[in-house]
Predict the 3D structure of the following.
Amino acid sequence: MTDKPSVLRDTDDEARKLARTLLRSARSAALAVLEPGENGFPFVSRALIGIDIDGTPVILISKLSTHTQALTLDNRCSLLVGEIGKGDPLAHARMTVQCLAEKVERDDTRHLRLRERFLRRHPKAELYVDFPDFAFFRLTPQRASLNGGFGRAYALDGPDLMITSPAIADLVAMEGRAIDHMNSDHADAATRYAQTFCKATEEGWTITGIDAAGLDLSLGDKLKRLEFEQPLQSAAELRPLLVRLYG
Amino acid sequence: MTDKPSVLRDTDDEARKLARTLLRSARSAALAVLEPGENGFPFVSRALIGIDIDGTPVILISKLSTHTQALTLDNRCSLLVGEIGKGDPLAHARMTVQCLAEKVERDDTRHLRLRERFLRRHPKAELYVDFPDFAFFRLTPQRASLNGGFGRAYALDGPDLMITSPAIADLVAMEGRAIDHMNSDHADAATRYAQTFCKATEEGWTITGIDAAGLDLSLGDKLKRLEFEQPLQSAAELRPLLVRLYG
């Protein structure tokens, strides 16, 4: 029972929120590409996942890897997100996202923010992020298939997984400082957000990402996603929202 | 760093044992196929994994699923096994197995043993295993890529993952009874095996599979694989081996 004999449900806001939360809280994913030199044989392995400020999933891979070689020849790929917890692996929500990959060169204006956002989420990647054979790829979602557990299947469009807001440019400019400020001067806020909105029980959470649609919260190897009710329409809305969520 | 900029190591017996253990202890896997009607777009989702008596991985999927439709059109597929534990997802061993899928019909002589072996490992599948739209597929490994953690990459051939022994036919005939006997009359044995050979700490393990190359041990949602030093050459070797392993 891989895919439920699918009676697709109508895709509603709750399903979209689950889909976004699954993708944006994924530390890693299974990534399927077409194996180079094998006439289109599918090939799946594991990759660390980052998320760009507009919601696009991002990977950091070496030129020497099967993935880079594959995506250079055919940029179509498929991501599986949703970690297996206890119990039946098929009872846990997971999502397949069909994407088109685009390499982001180092002189691309988006490179700096990708690098910073990725390293805040995966600090150990600092060890190799600047190696000359490594590069970021943005994986733009084309469509997705969400399985929220037995009998809860939904089809999503690529834009359902993206973040659109006039605030994005301003948020890019201020994200790093806002995170530093929150984690230093309001060090308990991330833990309160994680406990209040993300079912966390531990102390010690920090903010690792702020975008127009929500917050990324980290504790060691754990990652939680707090989705705002509505995306911010201006960067000026961030501060009052963070105060309100603090309660 | 999806695939390590791969300096492949020589594939030795230790690597083969790790590969077999990873595959045979997997409860589920990411399964990549080619999406039907999408001109070869890769598509990855999650499937429960069983193992046939000869080591072949097995899935149980519905005719209505993307997987069945895909594999009916093109039987090439890719499995990713190796669960993510704590810490860096890329520090954990995982393996990509390139397979060719073959549907096993209900009147096939192999169907009964596949069904029994699968249900011992996944008892909840009893709910749907006999639905008319569900079928087993054997996924015969063609080659594999093992990543044992940073800098430990190995290439394997399909036969490295298979179990070959003249004892297989006799083991098929006796497996169910042997398991019942061990779990009823020597109920502590599975726990002792799991603790002695598989780093388990809990009590309450049971045996869910016996083949020429080892034992499958289950406790709730957990699955461990005990690989014998050498495959059994006759079914008569099983009993003395189980006694010796009990210590």
In short: Confidence is low (pLDDT under 50) at residues 1-5 of chain A. Residues 63 and 109 of chain A are 21 Å apart (CA to CA). Chain A touches chain B through 57 residues (CB under 8 Å). The first strand of chain A starts at residue 28 and ends at 34.
